[in-house]
Amino acid sequence: MPAEDGFVPTPPAISDEVALSLLSCIHNNDDNETNLLYPGAGRGPLFAAVKRYCSVRGKPLPDAHLVEANENRAGFLDQRFGKSEPHTPSLSDDSRRAHTPSYPPGATAEKTPVHGDVTIKETNFLTADFDTKFDFAIANPPYSRYKNIDTGLRDQYREQYNSTEGSFPLYAPFTEAMINHLKVGGWMSVILPEQALLRDTFAPFRDVLLRENIVQIAALPRATFPDHSIETILLTLQKTKSPLYDSHFWVETLYNYKSKLEELLIRLGVSESEVGDHINAYNERVDYLKTQLVWNQKNDGKEGGYNSAVVPTDQTESEQSGLGAWSDD
């Protein structure tokens, strides 16, 4: 289970994927005057991944605003990133491959120096004030259960956030706060438990998400957090000027190519002899999520935190299987 404050470290391999999910959406944006919010920054794996991405792709590094409530982790961030000088980040061969463009075929990438302002704030993100809005936000939020949230803070969160009805998990107001601090048109990627899409009690949270432009929801492999009994997804959205209410929830595979998932699983420590079993389990889980979301959206509708006006088309078993359509290349 997560630590008492809900902290679960993000593996470097997954950090690379989260950075790719966010920054590939805006890969044509070469504006040097952008900023990126890292709430619940932990020890900085997502910031390190963004630096790797920008170095390999030759992109400007957005100014970083790292927020961390834990004193020890905030101190670690200051030691690791506090001195903001132009530098070339360290890069493993695996990270280089992850961030190298897949198009055109045979594309290569060399590391380039990166530099951006870094601000580190030791505070509770959910009660923090900022003097600016952000172009981008990226996080693996704390997964604290309702019973582990300070009772005084529960009341404060209920007054401040719309996603806090009933026995809410901490990641619900945390994600809502990320949206609140984005500029209109800003982008964010966030790791969430898959139950956020399914459980009845999380309907208010889903309603908050549906107001924005949901760009992608991809299932993450079970090996992402092997020491914790939690299945996760990676959700990317764009903040809209006014509520859309025409988004809906669906789940897709993380890659179009089976070989890419194999590489990720090996990076996550799965032995080659077990990769096949992990892929089969991933395939079955994606199928289940697709089927369950179609059922929920048809039967629970708006009261269940779904968009009853936009229901994914029923799919055959073969159409539901993302892996079944993957290339073996």
UniProtKB/TrEMBL annotation:
Q: What GO biological process, any one, is recorded here?
A: methylation
Q: Which Pfam families match?
A: Eco57I
Q: Where is the stretch described as Disordered?
A: 77-115, 304-329
List the catalysed reactions. Answer: a 2'-deoxyadenosine in DNA + S-adenosyl-L-methionine = an N(6)-methyl-2'-deoxyadenosine in DNA + S-adenosyl-L-homocysteine + H(+)
What keywords is this UniProt entry annotated with? DNA-binding, Methyltransferase, Restriction system, S-adenosyl-L-methionine, Transferase
Question: What InterPro entries does the record point to?
Answer: DNA_methylase_N6_adenine_CS (IPR002052), MethylTrfase_TaqI-like_dom (IPR011639), N4_N6_ade-DNA_methylase (IPR050953), SAM-dependent_MTases_sf (IPR029063)
Q: Write the signal peptide boundaries.
A: none
Q: Where is the Type II methyltransferase M.TaqI-like domain?
A: 121-215
Molecular function (GO) terms for this protein are: DNA binding; site-specific DNA-methyltransferase (adenine-specific) activity
Q: What is the lineage of its organism?
A: Archaea, Methanobacteriati, Methanobacteriota, Stenosarchaea group, Halobacteria
Q: Which PANTHER family does this entry report, sorted A to Z?
A: DNA METHYLTRANSFERASE YEEA-RELATED (PTHR33841), TYPE II METHYLTRANSFERASE M.HINDII (PTHR33841:SF6)
Name it.
Answer: site-specific DNA-methyltransferase (adenine-specific)
